[in-house]
Amino acid sequence: MTDVTLALRRIHERIAAAKADSGRESCDIRLVAVSKTHAPAIIERALAAGQRDFGENYLQEAVGKIRALAGHGARWHFIGRIQSNKTADIAQHFDWVQTVDRERVARRLDSARGAGLEPLNVCLQIRLADDPNRPGVAPQELPALAASVERLPRLRLRGLMCMPPLQAEAGASARHFDTTREHYERLRAAGHALDTLSMGTTGDLEAAVAAGSTMIRVGTAIFGVRQRR
Ligand SMILES: *Cc1c(COP(=O)(O)O)cnc(C)c1O
After folding, report:
1. Is the CB of 200 under 6 A from ligand 1?
2. Global confidence as pTM
3. Roughly how many angstroms between the first and final C-alpha of the chain, as a whole number?
4. Residues with Cβ < 8 Å from 163, sequence gap 6 or more?
């Protein structure tokens, strides 16, 4: 068994234990392996171990890997900051975008998504810290953004994503996860058919599962410490 195979097995065990602890045994939780900075050969080991979903943050680097691994059955999730002049590459190469936070970007992704491809799966990134320099849409603007994404034919709105600020204070992530879950339920109650709550990483996946996460994004615990870019 390779290191990556073993690491994936350990993550699945952590997820299973977290599900059991929070009474969510029957829920499906998808694992996205965050492969930013790691080489295609390492990603291939994860593919060989049955991992299908991969997350990438840096567009140029990602497009090279997506091309190199074409035909291997990987699903690619863009989880980095979106520059609005780079939306065409994202729309052409990825299956999911989890960091949509403004209408202009959504419209550009929609018009660049090829007609021959499935609609692009979208999560809106919510901004929980009251800091305009952090990425994400402010909670009060979520309903309007969700409504405009829903109207775009080449996008499929799937849910919300959150990335709590790095901070030492225990329990801070858990509060962010609970708040994200509340906004997710509110959008569903308003009629949006959402099925994805993307939250939880190497350090806080247990808290995310307890708060209702359906998609965990893990990098370090699978691929090791990130390479310098
Ligand atoms: C890098 C990254 C992750 C993975 O974080 P780890 O701590 O390495 O598991 C998850 N989500 C986003 C948005 C990231 O940028």
Report:
1. no
2. 0.96
3. 28
4. 125, 136, 199, 201
Q: Is 35 in the pocket of ligand 1 (CB under 6 A)?
A: no
* Contacts of 5 by beta carbon, 8 Å cutoff, 6+ apart: 45, 48, 49
Residue 223, SS3 per DSSP: helix
User: Nearest 5°: CA angle at 59, between 58 and 60?
Assistant: 105
d(Cα 1, Cα 18) in Å, to the nearest integer? 24
**Does any ligand 1 atom lie closer than 6 A to the CB of residue 217?**
yes
pLDDT digits (tens, 9 = 90+) for 51-88: 999 999 999 999 999 999 999 999 999 999 999 999 99
Taking the C-alpha atoms of residue 193 and residue 72, their distance in angstroms, rounded to an integer, is 30
Please tell me the distance from the alpha carbon of residue 217 to that of residue 163, in angstroms, as a whole number: 10
Q: Could you read off the pLDDT of 190-203 as tens digits, one per residue?
A: 999 999 999 999 99
The closest of 198, 182, 200, 180 to 190, measured between CA atoms, is 182
